[in-house]
Amino acid sequence: MNEMTKLTAKDFATDQEVRWCPGCGDYAVLKAVQRTMPELGVRPENVVFVSGIGCSSRFPYYMETYGFHTIHGRAPTFATGIKLANPELDVWIITGDGDALSIGGNHTMHVLRRNLDCQILLFNNEIYGLTKGQYSPTSRVGTRSPSTPFGSVDRPASPCAFALGSGARFVARGIDVHKNLPEVLKAAHAHKGASFVEIYQNCVVYNDDIFAPFTAKENAGNQLWLKAGEPMLFANRSKGIALDRESLSLKVVDVDGGDWAAAGVIVHDPRNRSIAHMLVEMPFGAFPTALGVLYEDPAPTFESAVAEQNSKASAGKAPNLQALVGKGQSWEVTKEPHVI
Amino acid sequence: MASATHLVTPEEAHSDAPLEAVVVRFAGDSGDGMQLTGGQFTLSTALAGNDLATFPDFPAEIRAPQGTTFGISAFQINFGSSAIETAGDAPDVLIAMNPAALRVNVAALKPGGLIIADVGEFGARNLAKAGYATNPLEDGSLAKWQLIPFNISQLTLDAVKPFGLGNKEALRCKNMWTLGLALWMFDRDKAPIEEWVRTKFAKAPELAEANIAALRAGHAYGETAEIGGQIPQRHLDPAPAEPGLYRTVTGAEAISIGLVAGAQLAGLPMFFGGYPITPASAILHHLSRLKEYGVTTFQAEDEIAAIGSAIGASFAGSLGVTSSSGPGIALKAEAMGLAIMTELPLVIINSQRGGPSTGLPTKTEQSDLYQAVYGRNGDAPMPVIAARSPADAFDCAIEACRIATQFMTPVMLLTDGYIANAAEPWKVPDMTDYQPFPVHFHDEAPAEGKAVNPYARDEKLARVWIKPGTPGLTHRIGGIEKNAATGHIDYAPANHQAMTDVRANKVLNVRSSIPDQEVTLGEEGGRLVVVGWGSTFGPIHQAVRRARARGLDVSHVHLRHIWPMPRNLGDLLKSYDRIIVPEMNTGQLKTVLRDQYLVDAKPVTKVSGQPFKIAEIEAAIEDALA
Question: Are B583 and B536 in contact (CB under 8 A)?
Answer without folding.
Answer: yes
